[in-house]
Amino acid sequence: MRRPAFGVFEGGGIKGIALAGAAAAVLDAGYRFERVAGTSAGALTASLIAADYTADELRQQVARIDWPSLLDGVPGLNIPLLGKHVAFLRKGGLYRGARLQRVWGHLLAAKGVSTFGDLDPGRLRMVAVDLSHERGVVLPDGLEEYGIDAARFPIARAVRMSSAVPFIFKPVELQNRFTGDISLMADGSLGSKFPVELVDQRSDAPVFGFRSVDVEDIHRHNEIRGPASLAAAVMTTGMSARETLPRGRFESVHQILVPTRRDSLDFNLSSKQALAMFDEGYAGGARFLAKSAMAPSHTP
């Protein structure tokens, strides 16, 4: 009999692989996530957890995904010297995000999940931002304000919205069925990178929060050589700066902090490297459970 728990997954680009590993350790410790919430990369992980991927299955998929291919460049990106600037100015982002949505759609479909209606109400929630109206949007709840039936809305598309880092990925268009207006939806980290407010902390079930921390000895220097690289630096700094600042106190949340050694948007990693990140996250989750005495005496 698995023990119920809630999970909250922080945004952080490719670092989400390590957070998935930490979540796998919690699953192996005999918990089942009744409700999960996430932002950006956290939404990617949370969606697979909501679809009932096991710890072993998560690890298998991490090895199978072609991570570099998720960066599907917009037309013109490969033009020598000027490609990134042209793509940035014409398309509002360097990558389409269609490949990411397609891959995640297949992963969810393998578990018989396609739309939010395929899950119990409230089981999965994620954050995006509406750039056109300067507001945060909780998915799937907020879809009603756009005249959209949340039960029929594809989860993979919602995940794509939540992870559409501005200037890096093109914003996702969402039409309001009431007004006909088109909203540009983007990365939820602009609103809430660690959406702990989306889970009910009054429940008796423990709330596990999965967050990444940079290894202190890593030195990074962004070469800024034009508008495209400047925009990318602004967004990656915005995503990582919060990790270097004092974190808020969430006394009722069991925060599992996973050290990572990779830039948030560095998708150029092999299957072996992806597995190493996953396993590091798993080890971090297992250490937390052991120290907090939340792990059972045996692994189911």
Kindly describe this structure.
Helix 1 (16-28) packs across helix 8, helix 2 packs antiparallel against helix 6 (155-162) and helix 3 (55-64) runs antiparallel to helix 8 (271-291). The protein contains 8 helices and 10 strands. The strands form 2 sheets. Strands 1, 2, 4, 5, 7, 8, 9 and 10 form an 8-stranded mixed beta sheet that branches. A two-stranded parallel sheet has the order 3-6. Helix content is 34%, strand content 20%. The chain has 300 residues and is an alpha/beta fold.
Range of helix content: 25-40%
Low-confidence stretches: 241-249
How far apart the termini lie comes to 9 Å
C-alpha geometry: globular
Q: Element order, helices and strands?
A: EHEHHHEHEEHEEEEHEH
The biggest beta sheet reads: 8 strands, mixed
Rg over alpha carbons: 19 Å
What is the number of E strands?
Answer: 10
Number of helices: 8
Sheet-strand content, in percent, reads: 15-25%
Structural class: alpha/beta
- Overall mean pLDDT score? 86
